[in-house]
Design goal:
mainly beta; six-stranded mixed β-sheet; 11 strands; 7% helix
Length: 195
């Protein structure tokens, strides 16, 4: 399944305020880069859910997949256009879990101790996916491999690298960068960079 381009507009209209286009793929993260072998990789779903779930790499890849061509925007001011991702739509995972009443947000967990918050509607957007391939190749560890979240309509810190779990919550709460002053929602078109 292939998702449509996230911004089918002229190039100038695809660049949010305060952003500069780069052809590079800058690498930014706090701390050291974790090594997460596929053989031991696990993805946990917990919190306000009827039954906690844990998936292996093979079980995650057995879910429906899609490819996505989209633009991405970093809070530091760079945008990269026409990036190509392949992965599992967040909706495909959501169909496997049974959220309890009142769930409004998710907290995405990632190695080694990173978290980021998203409203359920942002997490379930048609262009949100758990990516394991970039540009037709397996996702490199430096860019979040073996698997990262991609939420292209939010600043890219919301697209957590090295994902390890999803916590369902009934109220918004800050993740790693949000707790350090980054905006709770992170809409690049509104320049929601910081609190």
């Amino acid at each position: 399944m292939t998702a449509p381009h996230a911004h089918p507009r002229a190039q100038a209209e695809r660049i949010p305020p305060g952003q500069t286009v780069t052809k590079l793929f800058p690498v930014l993260h706090a701390g050291s880069m974790p090594e997460v072998p596929r053989e031991t990789w696990r993805f946990r779903v917990f919190g306000q859910v009827a039954a906690p779930l844990e998936l292996t790499w093979e079980e995650m890849l057995a879910l429906p997949r899609q490819t996505l061509k989209t633009d991405i925007h970093c809070v530091t001011g760079w945008s990269k256009l026409d990036t190509e991702w392949e992965g599992i739509p967040t909706r495909a995972l959501w169909e496997r879990i049974h959220p309890l009443d009142g769930v409004t947000h998710v907290m995405v967990h990632a190695h080694p101790d990173f978290t980021t918050n998203l409203a359920v509607e942002d997490f379930l957007a048609p262009t949100s996916l758990f990516a394991h391939r970039f540009g037709g190749q397996p996702l490199e560890p430096v860019h979040g491999g073996p698997m990262r979240l991609v939420v292209p309509h939010r600043y890219f810190w919301k697209s957590a690298k090295w994902v390890s779990g999803l916590e369902l919550i009934t109220a918004d709460r800050p993740g790693f960068w949000e707790d350090r002053g980054y905006h709770m929602r992170g809409d690049p078109w509104r320049e929601e960079r910081y609190w």
